[in-house]
Amino acid sequence: MSQDTESTDRSIRVVSPAKGKGFWTRRFGVLIVNQLTQGVSVREIALTLAWGVALGWFPLFGVTSLFCLFVGYKLKLNHVILQSTNWTVAWVHPLLFLFFVRIGESVVGAEAMPFVPAELIAEFNASPSAFMSRFAMTMLHGILGWSLLAPVIFSVTYAGMYPILRKVAKHL
After folding, report:
1. Residue 13 φ/ψ, nearest 5 degrees
2. How far is it, in rounded angstroms, from Cα 91 to Cα 166?
3. pLDDT in tens, 109-158
4. Cα(24)–Cα(88) distance, rounded to whole angstroms?
5. Other Cβ atoms within 10 Å of 15 Cβ, number
6. What's the pLDDT at 33?
7. What integer pLDDT is reported at residue 29 of this predicted model?
8. Rounded to a whole number, what is the largest CA-CA distance in the chain?
9. Least enclosed by CB within 10 Å: which of 22, 30, 53, 88?
10. What is the Cα gyration radius of the chain?
């Protein structure tokens, strides 16, 4: 048995993170490879990744984990991969928020809301309830924009990940 694997009681090959490998391989790749070696199908993992990306880019901050929990439970997805994907794509969330808002505004013909981060933070700190009432429509525009693009995000992620995972599974 190689240095990167361990044997379990049920004779399932488990890959352990090896030193010297890249950050993503150690943190995320090993998780997916372990699922593949334990009988989870390529299709299930690709679907889980696609849901994680699509839900992880939902434009309201702080609710993506709950959405992933709910969808993962209903669709019987792998929660570890789902939440890991959600958190992995979170870094781009602030940039996509504005993108989704602009798409939603253009669909309904609304005037573009100015986004000046310092002013937004100051307004939120001064009165969170006033901030929420002022930006409620903006948030709805973001949700609309996301709703229009989420199927595309999901499909592109699934279509991109499935062949990669199939190739990885073939080499295990």
Report:
1. -75, 120
2. 27
3. 999 988 888 988 899 899 999 888 888 999 999 999 999 999 999 999 99
4. 10
5. 19
6. 73
7. 67
8. 63
9. 22
10. 20
Q: For residue 107, what pLDDT is reported?
A: 97
- Identify the segments of the chain with pLDDT beneath 70: 1-31, 34, 36-37
Tell me the DSSP string of 7-28: E-TT--EEE-PPTTS-HHIIII
Residue 166 exposure: Cα atoms within 13 Å on the Cβ side = 8
Tokens of 76: 């019987």
Distance CA 169, CA 109 (A): 47
Is the whole-model pTM more than 0.85? no
List the chain domain ranges. Answer: 40-170
147 touches 57 (CB < 8 A): no
Tallying the residues shown for the chain, one arrives at 172
